[in-house]
Design a protein that fits this description.
Blueprint lengths: L8 H18 L33 H30 L14 H8 L17 H16 L5 E5 H10 L9 H10 L2 E5 L11
Parallel strand pairs: 1-2
Helix pairs in contact: 2-4
Length: about 200
């Protein structure tokens, strides 16, 4: 009785010899019918020779153009984010403030300021205190990018919010009111001690 499960070595070799040329003819070349998915131009063999199955495939010119578009989009997103943060931190009346328009003495005081050291500006009404702080805050937002968080409030409004926590029906504690200003990188407090509700506290 013959065992049909085993084939002779000669027959296996013949089958392999017949299949290898057939497989070689059926395998497509990496350059056959390869066109750029963006412009439709022909692709050269050196674009992605080891990964012909990857899609989409672009010619070198389209790849460079796409890189430039991505960089331009990133710059536009950073610029829009910067504008949003400036508008959120600075009131409309002082958004034109620039640090280059401040007095050299104030700019020098800012440059010599130690890390985490505050700055106190005082003077008559209309002397430019808010303008100076707006210019300083704008410069910090631009230089530090997304690393700076600014909170701005007037002293009168802060006093009102703190006093509202004294009520038995209050939903916030004093710490809840102060927490955003404690967590911010820059706390901009205006009109300290002014207003009809000013007190020693």
């Amino acid at each position: 009785m013959k065992d049909h499960t085993q084939a002779s070595p000669t027959r296996i070799g013949e089958v392999i010899k017949r299949q290898i040329p057939l497989m070689a003819k059926q395998s497509p070349s990496t350059t056959d019918a390869r066109i750029c998915d963006r412009c439709g131009g022909p692709l050269k063999a050196h674009v992605l020779p080891n990964y012909p199955e990857l899609h989409p495939m672009y010619c070198p010119a389209c790849m460079a153009r796409g890189q430039r578009e991505r960089l331009r989009k990133q710059r536009q997103d950073r610029c829009a984010s910067r504008i949003r943060r400036i508008n959120a931190a600075i009131p409309p009346s002082h958004r034109t403030a620039r640090i280059g328009r401040l007095s050299p003495k104030l700019v020098k005081a800012m440059a010599e300021r130690k890390p985490k050291q505050g700055l106190l500006l005082w003077g008559r009404t209309g002397s430019g205190k808010s303008y100076a702080v707006a210019a300083i805050v704008r410069d910090l937002i631009i230089r530090m990018r997304d690393k700076v968080v600014v909170q701005r409030i007037t002293h009168a409004v802060l006093d009102h919010r703190l006093r509202s926590t004294f009520s038995p029906a209050a939903h916030q504690s004093e710490l809840d009111v102060l927490r955003p200003f404690m967590d911010a990188n820059v706390c901009w407090l205006e009109d300290v001690g002014s207003g009809v509700n000013a007190s020693d506290f």
